[in-house]
Amino acid sequence: MIDLKPCPFCGGRAERIDLDEDETDPNYGGSFIYCPDCLASSKLIFGEKVGLEEAWNNRKAAPSTEPEAIREALQKISLIRAYETKWMRIR
Q1: Domain identity same for 28 and 2
Q2: Is 52 in the same domain as 73?
Q3: How much is the pTM?
Q4: E strand residue ranges, 1-91
Q5: Model confidence over 47-60: pLDDT tens digits?
């Protein structure tokens, strides 16, 4: 088994869950990875579970919640909207 990287959203410890205890559960036989701290999870995989850990470990990190990063993102959105408004007037 591959070591799991921390949750890309909160930094919590990730866990692999294999649903193999209750055969009446419609998700029986499936596996997924999740973070018990923020409840982020991978998709539920059945059958051959090749790549489950790699998919979790290679997930893109969550966008920054730092005020400066948020300010920069809002400025980019503002520029895009200004460009779209100008373009609409030209048409």
Answers
A1: yes
A2: no
A3: 0.60
A4: 15-18, 31-34
A5: 888 889 998 998 77
